[in-house]
Amino acid sequence: MNRLFGASAAKPKPSLTDAIASTDLRMDSIEVKVRKLDVELTKYRDQMRRMKDGPGKAAVQQRALRVLKQKKLYESQIGQLQQQTFNMEQASLTTDNLRNTMATVDAMKTANKELKKQYGKMDIDKIEQMQYEMEDLIEQANEVQESMSRSYGVPDEVDEADLEAELDALGDDLAEDEEGIPSYLREEGTELPDFVDEAPVLEKTEEQAEPRATEGVI
After folding, report:
1. What is the sign of the dihedral through the CA atoms of 209, 214, 217 and 218?
2. What is the DSSP string of 66-122?
3. Residue 214, pLDDT above cutoff 50
């Protein structure tokens, strides 16, 4: 028959997520039944309160006991399903953690291979030699800068005490030079004339004016 009609495709096995969802549906359906039984028990309880002792009350009591037993059975099933759900959720979490751990391990392996590949291209001896060469080049550059900034004709070492003594002696020489200047040149109150090209105009005295007046009289 399988050769004529072909074999049916194998159904995929349910996962933990599917099993948990199925169990939750079963618990929901049982809880609905428990709520219906609670309503029925409430009705029987009200009837028994209104009834007097007798065969009728005893019959209602028997039905109430039967419903109560059924409720206990459903509650027991709910408890079992809840435990199963808890176990499956715990197993699912463990599986997820293991899957994440395996992914992390694979990523670390890949990174390890890549690091080995990259560091395998590096030569530590060449890097050290390059560092030494850089140090030598920097040292040579510093020596060139020092040589280029050297001063010409200036003593390398100058004593500050000698400079101060020379400065004091220079002040004494300036004082002596000032004493050798004539007094009329050193007089502060002397004013220079304002004219440059024209001769100064002299005021006529009374003696020069008298002869001219006498000539006019004669």
Report:
1. negative
2. HHHHHHHHHHHHHHHHHHHHHHHHHHHHHHHHHHHHHHHHHHHHHHHHHHHHHHHT-
3. no
State pLDDT tens for residues 101-127.
999 999 999 999 998 888 877 888 888
Closest C-alpha to 95, from 26, 12, 10, 19: 19
Place of tokens 């009837």: 47
Of 89, 83, 100, 90, the C-alpha closest to 19 is 89
pLDDT for 27: 92
Helix or strand holding residue 39 (H, E): helix 16-50
Q: Return the ∠ at Cα 123 (arms to 121 and 128), rounded to 5°.
A: 145
pTM: 0.45
Residue type, 142: N
